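DM between two lab members

TW: hey, do you still have the catechol O-methyltransferase entry open?
JB: yeah, one sec
JB: this one, 289 aa:
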Amino acid sequence: MATFDKSKAYQDQDQVFFDDGREVELLHFVFGRPDIDSIRGNPTAVVKAIDEYGRTKKYLMNVGEDKGAIVSNLIAEVKPRIMVELGGYVGYSAILFGAAVRKANPQGKYYSLERNPEFAAVSGALVNLAGLSDTVKIEVGSSDASLKRLYEAGAFGDQIDLMFLDHWKPAYTTDLKLCEELRLVRPGSVLAADNVIKPGNPPYLEYVRSSVGEKRKAVAEQKKNGSGVDERFSSKQATMYEKRVGKVELANLVGNPNLIYESKLIESFEPSGVADGVEITRCMGEESQ
Ligand SMILES: C[S@@+](CC[C@H](N)C(=O)[O-])C[C@H]1O[C@@H](n2cnc3c(N)ncnc32)[C@H](O)[C@@H]1O
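TW: and the structure you got?
JB:
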């Protein structure tokens, strides 16, 4: 595994690490630069400016350079017509990956789904600065509601080619199952899930690494016993999230257990240097019932 270059580390994460005014401070930092006119329309320069804030001012929960390169390589390979990200924050990944989609497939669209309207507003300003507004579409709302709304509006066409999961950890599996049920995730679709080591997402990894037989068995059990937030997520994590966004009910979805996945972990680093990884999952086919 590669080593982390400490000279590019973001500031430490600290107890409070977002939604304390730093997102708007970032906008002032970027738009207040003396060279602002030279970075307009240049996604690489805008990403660099966001990195500079994270390195010199305050930590930002961005995917960062190292894990970002893993997903950018995947985009170059898949050349998605439709790419969707769950969790957009201030637009770092939307700019980095939106530019990669535009390069790989000029007709491609990148949907960035973000629950927090303030973060989405920051993201919109930076995406516009990067000159990517024709490719990147920011959708405000909870990911499951946005997925359903965009599906019903026909925004995705037949399928999601590439999905980047980077939002509330318990929702990775339920949103994937929702996409499976809507047949947006189907043979040919590829998934890239962030933070599967830090803070970790054992239920998601178990799901995408399961065989069809194992998933069918789990569905039968779920139909008997129902589902909820997996007990492997700490109650502290769940309580903190509920304090911010209110009580969240996770839908009792069964997904499509017949989909055949091939999944592997690519180890890498958080922008702060902490070890993490991206799980890359390819939908290879579908078993008949
Ligand atoms: C780790 S950040 C995303 C970072 C971003 N992908 C990047 O690398 O630049 C997670 C984001 O997910 C958003 N989020 C959390 N739960 C969500 C949900 N259910 N639907 C949509 N967004 C959600 C949070 O508001 C936060 O902005």
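TW: got it. The longest strand covers residues 275-286. The radius of gyration is 19 Å.
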